[in-house]
Amino acid sequence: MAETEGTSRWVGNLDEMIEYAKDGIVSKTIVDTPETKIVLFAFSPGQCLSEHTASVPASIHILDGTASITLGDERHDAGPGTYVYMPAELKHAVDAPDNMVFLLTLHRGGNG
Predict the structure, then answer these.
(1) In angstroms, rounded to a whole number, what is the distance separating the alpha carbons of residues 70 and 75?
(2) Count of beta carbons in the 10 Å neighbourhood of residue 34
(3) Which of 31, 54, 73, 89 is the least buried, fewest Cβ under 10 Å from its Cβ?
(4) In this structure, is residue 112 part of a structural domain?
(5) Is residue 54 part of a domain?
(6) Mean of the per-residue pLDDT values for the chain?
(7) What are the C-alpha distances in Å from 58 to residues 24, 36, 68, 73, 109?
(8) Are 56 and 92 in contact (CB under 8 A)?
């Protein structure tokens, strides 16, 4: 992984960062600036993020595996390449029937 410290730039190989925990979820923060937070998540089969909200807009990009994503009252099946944008305060949940990896971006705004 290659990083540029002290700036909002980041270059790296996400595949090399993926780690699964037995019966768990592994999260790794990639970028954390006042404007944006990007986190790589890896779920083992059967794991979920229960319904919650975020105080800022967020997006999920499925990189590997499949997921069931609930947005408000709507459930969506998602696979590699699926991109989901969620406005702030939208109730959402993520379920992974199998190994699944996604990139979460929190869009905090600010001057960037």
Answers:
(1) 4
(2) 11
(3) 73
(4) no
(5) yes
(6) 91
(7) 22, 10, 17, 18, 11
(8) no
Region label for 83, one of left (φ > 0), alpha (ψ between -120 and 50) or beta (otherwise): beta
Looking at the domain assignment, is residue 98 inside a domain? yes
Q: Residue 90 is which amino acid?
A: L
CA dihedral 49, 55, 57, 59 (to 10 degrees): -20
Q: What is the pLDDT of residues 65-110, one digit of tens each?
A: 999 999 999 999 999 999 999 999 999 999 999 999 999 999 998 5
| DSSP H or E run through 101 | strand 100-107
Q: How many domains does the chain have?
A: 1
Q: Residue 8 corresponds to which tokens in the numbers above?
A: 């909002």
The reported pLDDT for the residue numbered 9 is 84
Distance CA 31, CA 13 (A): 14
Beta bridge partners of 84: 60
Range of the domain at 97: 2-107
